Amino acid sequence: MTQTYVVRFVGGPLDGRVDSHARAPEAPRPTVTHVHLHSGPKIVHHYDLQYAVEYGCEYHLRVEDGA
């Protein structure tokens, strides 16, 4: 039986999102960028890999300094 690789997002517009993949990547990306396009200005959020757990990995919203 193959275990599903799970990617969780914490904070920001992707908070609570869970992506499932058939297998783990060679190396999880250190940062994931989410771009939100709507009728106003483009909004960019960065999620950083905080730690890898046995089921997959977890990304947390980056707290931007000076905002």
Describe the structure.
The chain is mainly beta. The protein has one domain (5-61). The chain has no helices and five strands. The protein has strands at 5-10, 18-21, 31-36, 43-53, 56-61. It has a five-stranded mixed sheet with strand order 2-1-5-4-3, with no helix packed on it. The chain is elongated, with a radius of gyration of 14 Å. The mean pLDDT is 88.
Tally the helices.
Answer: 0
Q: Low-confidence stretches at least 5 residues in length (pLDDT < 50)? A: none
Total number of beta strands? 5
The largest beta-sheet arranges its strands as 2-1-5-4-3
- What class do helices, strands and sheet pairing give? mainly beta
How many domains make up the 3D coordinates?
Answer: 1
Q: What is the succession of H and E elements? A: EEEEE
Radius of gyration: 14 Å
Estimate the helix proportion, in percent. Answer: under 10%
**Beta-strand content:** over 45%
Report on the biggest sheet: 5 strands, mixed
The 3D shape can be described as elongated
Mean pLDDT: 88
Span from first to last CA?
47 Å
